[in-house]
Specification:
This protein is an alpha/beta fold. It has 14 helices and 24 strands.
Length: about 425
């Protein structure tokens, strides 16, 4: 079965159940299925093996996305803000490369680690991702999931999968530009609400709308986070204000699919803990200390780039650049990306560890740890700091605070005050833009 088979089943069995809410409009499973069928008819003359389209938060996006899969055409959703010239470049590139049969999606990565790559995802991987999330997070027909991120990337796109698989309801919000609009979505009459929030969005909500989030405690079934590291301080705050909500930290990427998850409201707030593998996935740690993933959720490869594909995907194993360890319970603990580790005079410093320690400092709103050149040690650790509104940075107090929580060589030598931390669309810190 492909994902759209589940959509058709629900359109037949529960036709009047709400599938999709966008703004003031809602669509039942029957109505959504009919719109997909209309899109299939309009696209039936398509000569290409793919269709590029902008991922705007509209019912037209969903109709086009599902129609591509029914037609056996690869869906290529791109940023709704992508210039037409870049869209034409992607189309031209895909025209010149071979797209394997049963490729459902081609998702373009952010390019923060290099040139943007088109990740090919099969229908089998999509169903495996959906099954992973349904079983691990407890999606059911009664779940109402609020999707607030870009629909052209795995973080938000993958939440469509379990909703459709189990016949649940999804509410689409256009980002967090207006927190009031985001919170209005939770006025929906349901006691099984859920959402996905990247750590930077969680930080914003805890800074400006903690009470509003706390008011949802009785109806918030679960919140999932991922894409970047969440601080222990933010985990602890979430546990305090949402004591009965399941709070998941998930390990996933465009290339690997959805691999592991961990409920830190049940198991404890442990920095970097991402839990055990889900039912269709597994992982192991290589001799070099890197995470390698297996299972049905893995990508097929990079479109038009067999060399880059073979560099990380070999014999059914996808080798990541993430440093990690596996504990005695079989849980994955992430230690950051191998290429982010800072070498300070032969000592290895994980920037995530420094950032996590700093986030407990009173008045600190955000931070980023980066290397800077040093004449003695080659590199020195620098901490870029964003303070909460009305607070000032006392560098000496922050340094003393960190000395009580980190080994001496990990304590930053330099501190810089900034208005914000540059991040990618999905909340990952854009480290490379700070390193010359």
């Amino acid at each position: 079965m492909i994902l759209e088979d589940y959509l058709r089943q629900h359109a037949c069995r529960t036709p009047d159940r709400t599938a999709l809410v966008i703004g003031s409009k809602s669509f039942t499973y029957r109505e959504l299925d009919e719109l997909v069928s209309e899109a299939v008819d309009s696209l039936s003359g398509l000569k290409r093996r793919f269709l590029c389209f902008k991922a705007a938060p509209s019912v037209d996006f969903f109709a086009s996305y599902f129609a591509c899969h029914r037609l056996g055409v690869a869906a290529v959703p791109v940023s709704k803000e992508m210039p037409e010239v870049h869209l034409a470049e992607i189309s031209a590139m895909l025209e010149s490369c071979s797209i394997p049969p049963r490729t459902a999606d081609i998702l373009f990565t952010t390019g923060t680690t290099g040139k943007s790559k088109g990740v090919m995802v099969s229908s089998r991987a999509i169903v495996a991702d959906a099954s992973n999330l349904v079983s691990a997070h407890g999606f059911s027909q009664d779940t109402v999931f609020v999707i607030n991120g870009p629909l052209n990337h795995i973080g938000s796109l993958s939440k469509i999968f379990p909703v459709i698989m189990c016949g649940a309801t999804m509410i689409i919000v256009d980002g967090l530009k207006d927190l009031n609009v985001f919170f209005e979505a939770f006025n929906y009459p349901s006691s099984k609400m859920a959402t996905f929030l990247v750590p930077s969005s969680i930080r914003i909500i805890l800074q400006f709308a903690e009470e509003k989030l706390a008011s949802l405690a009785s109806k918030m079934d679960f919140i999932e986070t991922g894409a970047a590291a969440i601080s222990v301080a933010d985990m602890e705050t979430l546990c305090r204000i949402l004591p009965d909500t399941r709070l998941f930290n998930t390990y996933a990427s465009t290339e690997t699919g959805i691999i592991c998850t961990y409920d830190f409201n049940e198991g404890g707030c442990v920095a970097g803990c991402l839990g055990r593998p889900m039912k269709n996935s597994d992982f192991f740690i290589t001799p070099e200390g890197l995470v390698a993933c297996t299972g049905d959720t893995l990508m097929t490869g990079y479109a038009g780039d067999p060399e880059k594909t073979s560099a990380i995907l070999r014999n059914g194993v996808l080798y990541t650049s993430d440093s990690g360890v596996k504990d005695e319970k079989g849980q994955l603990h992430l230690k950051g990306r191998s290429d982010d580790v800072i070498n300070v005079g032969g000592f290895k410093v994980d920037p995530l560890e420094v950032e996590n320690a700093a986030m407990g400092f009173e008045g600190l709103a955000d931070c980023l740890c980066v290397p800077v050149p040093d004449s003695l040690t080659g590199n020195a650790v620098k901490l870029i700091v964003v303070m909460s509104e009305g607070r000032t940075l006392d560098k000496r107090s922050l340094a003393l605070y960190l000395r009580g929580r980190l080994e001496p060589y990990k304590v930053p030598m330099r501190y810089e005050l900034a208005e914000s931390i540059r991040r990618t669309f999905n909340g990952k810190p854009d480290r490379k833009s700070y390193v010359g």
